[in-house]
Amino acid sequence: MLAIRHASTADLSQLAQLFDTYRQFYEQTPDIALAKTFIAERLNNSESVILVAENEKQILIGFCQIYPSFCSVAAVKIGVLYDLFVTTNARKTGAGKSLMLEAYEYAKNNGLARLDLSTAKTNINAQKLYESLGWVRDEVFYVYNKDIIIVKF
User: Fold this and answer.
1) What's the pLDDT score for residue 4?
2) How far, in Å, CA of 147 to CA of 52, rounded?
3) What's the rounded Cα separation, in Å, for the pair 82 and 63?
4) pLDDT digits (tens, 9 = 90+) for 48-80
5) Residue 78: which of 101, 111, 45, 100 has the closest Cα?
């Protein structure tokens, strides 16, 4: 039995492990302390919504994280579905799809006009999931990033 629910601080240990594994998927160095601090800050400061997928043994097998944002052009609130991850052994169980559907329901019930996400060009499985759920790949805009060099005194 799969359950999708909002994460709480009681989930911090399991969620930090998932988040650290997710970061490693995107070629980041393992750092459980960083993962735990980052997730704790998001939860404690209500800076994101984290949905978790939990199996029948009450083990977290996946999560997605939505950050609040805005679309200036449409003058509406939107959400950025920045993270979606399901453990390797729980893939093909419907956990990812269930998380995506719950994210949509959260957005609809909380007045968000749109959800945005981005994924690696090589993440074909994720792209298939998104498109099967009606997400449309942007063919108009390019996404740019620029790292900020933080000077510490």
Assistant:
1) 98
2) 29
3) 11
4) 999 999 999 999 999 999 999 999 999 999 999
5) 111
What is residue 58's three-state secondary structure? Answer: coil
pTM given for the model: 0.92
Domains of the chain as residue ranges with CATH? 3-132 (3.40.630.30)
User: How many Cβ atoms are within 10 Å of 4's Cβ, its own excluded?
Assistant: 20
The pLDDT, as a whole number, for residue 20 is 97
Find the DSSP H helices in the chain: 12-25, 32-44, 95-109, 124-132
Q: What values do phi and psi take at 59, rounded to 5? A: -105, 130
**DSSP bridge partners of 3:** 54
